[in-house]
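By convention, each integer encodes one residue's backbone shape. The lines below illustrate.
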Amino acid sequence: MTAYRGPVFEMAVKQFEVIANYLGIPDDARPRLLLPKRSVTVSCPIHRDDGTTAVFEGYRVQHHLTLGPTKGGTRFAPTVDLGEVAALAIWMSWKCALVGLPYGGAKGGINVDPSSLSKRELEALSRRYMQEMIPFVGPHTDVMAPDLGTNEQIMAWFMDTYSMYQGQTVTEIVTGKPVSAGGTLGRREATGRGVAHLVRRAADELKIRLNGATAVVQGFGNVGSIAALELHNMGVKVIAVSDHTGALYQSRGLDIPQLVRHAASQGSLDGYSNELALDPAEMLTMPCDVLVPAAVERVIDAEIAGKLRCRILAEGANGPTTPEADRILEGRQEEIFLIPDILCNSGGVVVSYFEWVQDLQRLFWEEEEVMRREYQLLDRAFERVLARSGRENIFNRTAAMAIGVERVRSAKETRGLFP
């Protein structure tokens, strides 16, 4: 029995069981690796602009603190529940371990549609959430970051709320802050840049020439838009993009810089073009060289997996592919090269780590240095995954998760059980 429920958590459990079976982890050792160390549920009341009071439910899950403080984003979305947050925290643990960061995984969130709030209400809710979390977080306990529905401004409100409570400025309590408030250059772009960099590495392995290749990007938020822009700058024709308002298609390639400017000014792709409109249901199964699902979890199920017509599947989102779809993709490894999510989108947490280190040291790097170090860690992890996948003739996701789970397991066994 467990307190965690829902399809996203069940997906994380199934993925872990696959890896635990592959690694031969004894049954009695599995719950300690899988179940979160700590989870918190809080009520966040705020005054609405119309004078009424509204209460929103917030969560924070810390998966493990064996390797260091926990690290993970905070999402504001109407789908957020404890099970989803727990699954995301678990995935973050394997991700941090895979790329060699001294972190355990965490995740947080509030069940709210942020677009339904005014700016004042959003600030009040952000500050109230952090106020409720103060007993459970800290620069050496749990470090927050942005995620779906949150941004640099919300991180600044988090940091300010925590700092007011401490009586001094504590920039290292969150990452993904504005540069003016202790953030690092290159953090906002880090995840999307990392996705594009790893696509280039995969293309090199497959002898695919990216200049003139085609790409489809599902999700045009921070990750998807930056990944699309970076791919565009490499010469890739991004032929289709989508967000929650719709999809756009152009066979000769979309004007990605113009789309990025439109989305930044309007908040979405809505209103850009009626002539280029596409049924979003067609996005994932379009023929292309590179497919980047960069939206939400569980968008590639078994049916879609069998219909994919991409050469490289670069998982910019967390958990976009179900375990049932994985079984099909595993049988299509000769056709489709998977860059699994815990590797593909890890650029964000890598540069968040750099931000945390810079805040602790009060010494900041130039953007070129941040990018150089990000790509260095991503390259190392990519090479480890490919080496293990080739050596043991296993699926890329199996290789990536095995590396992450093994590192956490080794650390727990070395430290022992207290008391």
